[in-house]
Amino acid sequence: MLIVLLCFISRLPQLLSDKLLLDGDECVVAIMTKHLLAGKDVSFFFYGQAYGFSFIECLFILPFFALFGISTICVKTSMLLLWTIGVIFLYKALTAISRNTTTSLILILTFVALPAWAVWSMKARGGYLTAFTVTSIILYLLFKKENNAPFTYYIIGILVVLVYQSQPLWLPGLIPLLMFKGFENKKRLLQMAIPIIILSLAFLLIKQSLPQFYVPKDFISLQESIKNIPRIPTFLYASQHGKYFFDQVQQPDNITALCAILLCAITLTLPIIALISFIRSGKITLFTVTTLSIVLTLSYTIISEKLEPRYLLPIAGFTFLSLQVFLVERPSVAKLFYPVAAIIIVMGGCSLYTFKNFVFCKTSEKPFRQTLQYLADNNVHYTYCNDNLLTWQIIFYSKEQVLCHERFLPGRYPEYTHKVDSAYNAGAKTALVGFEQEYYGLDIRPSLTMNGFFILYNPPKTLLQKNFRFW
User: Distance between terminal CA atoms of the chain?
Assistant: First the structure.
């Protein structure tokens, strides 16, 4: 109960902030849920992609929409519930490693206070929270004392596929632990492999019919990525202070920065300690394996062309798992760690409060809705937008009264782009909409500006064709 309360109370400043807003990708998941609720569409994956298993996130949002209506707060609260379940299972995994519940509780309370998860604990971003929660369940199943049941490793195999389909960033950290537990009894490897193979083939067949609006291309070759190795500490630091949006990294306040530095120090120190222990003893222990999870999770950042801190969301969970094993092996160190944990919890709590002012967008919900209502009142229900994220914010926050056309076809949801183009060709009133001064290379003289947005009524096709594709 204490863990659940802390998870929700620590996020109240953000939930009650007037700056709370869904980003474009969150709006996609919200609209997917809205369609599911209406019986219109059932999509297992993020619209327009053959990856990002989002169905579980939709299922969590669904009852909130049904009971309380469609809103930002419902999306955020339901995602916080999903994350909290993951935190609980991570705590159960820690207690399965050690009967010392005091250390486990201190570690999980420290985890909850991390600024790294301040924003992302409530983000419906197409599989990230699903992957975190399912990974926590896998860790619990791996380490619980009663894991010899014949079906346990079949379940783990199923869950591994779910992690891969949701967000495979968690797999590099999981694989060493799966192999370590699997080689204790090689039957376990077979039990995991059977559902992994069957379900992977099933998903492969399902994906054949899915549209591919977006395929990530921001990864570079291994040869080119060598130069990114020195970037790892910077990548880690940005991920731990949590104040970023995609590759736009903000400057954290002093408390958040110090909290992040402490976490970075712990994360980078544990593998060094494990390496020294291995050199001295020549033995591969559970501690060695957990630090390998840390190293592998850090290492995949080098193939990312941009510094995208969210790619290291898995690191904290594996760090705290490794730290638990380390403290179990060295009880005397645990007493020294408690004051450090207390400092991180206090600083983390202060840091989480500052996230009530965290902004990633040039608008907030109230003026945004006013602008969209103005469009609807002026009989503008079909728009074009250069910003692919703003596109989905327009659709969601207008309650689908104002549909929006992305730059590329067929779009994440082809029905919308088709309707906009059809309306445009039929002579209906349309508009090109965006943030002021963000014209994406187009020579635009807006019809009007309001609340930080520009609106160009009935844009000529010669202008639109420079950035947009038409049906």
Answer: 54
